[in-house]
Design a protein that fits this description.
- By secondary structure, the protein is an alpha/beta fold.
- It has seven helices and six strands, in the order E-H-H-E-H-E-H-E-H-H-E-E-H.
- It has a six-stranded parallel beta sheet, with helices on both faces.
- Strand 3, helix 4 and strand 4 form a beta-alpha-beta unit.
- Helix 1 packs across helix 2, helix 2 runs parallel beside helix 3 and helix 3 packs parallel to helix 4.
- The N terminus is likely disordered.
């Protein structure tokens, strides 16, 4: 993607990493190996986004609905989060990645919560790219907790006094601009309760590529597609040009 200038890149890319289980099934492997292969793909994509000028990357790692999966699979997914934080954080810090974790973290055990907190503290001053891991995250949860947080901060007011600008700072990813591009791998064409508020004007790119096979060239396809979009935000003519 050598002909694309950094100014053309979306500031914020969000990815629904779908297809790990199907990838494993196609190879007659246990589902856990599919999730593990998907986790290994993360570093390459973080590096590729950083190299292309993307400033924020948000990965949907574990949704509020994932608790409905078999206990063994849930345990495997949570174990991968622990392993990723233990193995990758020092390298992320070395390469200037700021790590954030968004979601209702209270349901995770204390060990994992401590790992998340220490990883975020270690990388807090980094500025090359902000990587957000959405864990036990749901878009509906995010909006509900934002309203509740606003009410707690403004006990003398009612929700009738709240507008969009007042609510926004209480969203779990208030530190990041809204994503301009969502990529979903695995062939599904839905957003699955991911960043519902923030994706009001996000461009949606769906690919059949399963997440463990997702690579920098496929990322480039999505970025090139994004740059060809006519982003008008309700206006009669394009307001954003690549």
């Amino acid at each position: 993607m050598q002909d694309t200038q950094p100014a053309a890149m979306p500031q914020h890319v969000a990815i629904i990493m779908d297809g790990n289980r199907r990838w494993a099934t196609q190879r007659s492997m246990p589902r856990a190996l599919g999730h593990a292969s998907g986790a290994r793909r993360v570093r390459q994509i973080v590096e590729a986004c950083s190299a292309r000028g993307v400033r924020y990357l948000t990965l949907f790692a574990f949704s509020t609905e994932n608790w409905k999966r078999p206990a063994e699979e849930v345990s495997s997914l949570v174990g991968l989060l622990v392993h990723y934080l233990q193995k990758e954080v020092s390298d992320m810090h070395r390469t200037g990645v700021r790590l954030k974790v968004a979601g209702d973290l209270s349901r995770f055990d204390q060990r994992l919560q401590n790992l998340m907190a220490s990883a975020q503290a270690l990388t807090a001053q980094n500025s090359q790219i902000t990587l957000t891991i959405a864990a036990n995250y749901g878009g509906r949860w995010d909006m509900m907790q934002a309203v509740q947080a606003w009410q707690a901060a403004n006990p003398s007011l009612t929700v009738a006094d709240m507008d969009e600008a007042a609510m926004r700072p209480h969203l779990s990813m208030a530190y990041a601009p809204d994503p301009e591009l969502l990529i979903r791998t695995g062939g599904e064409s839905r957003i699955s309760n991911f960043m519902l508020w923030q994706m009001a004007y996000t461009e949606l790119f769906f690919t059949d590529t399963l997440w463990p096979d997702f690579s920098a060239p496929v990322l480039d396809q999505a970025l090139e597609w994004f740059c060809a979009r006519d982003r008008r935000f309700g206006a009669s003519s394009s307001l954003v040009a690549c």
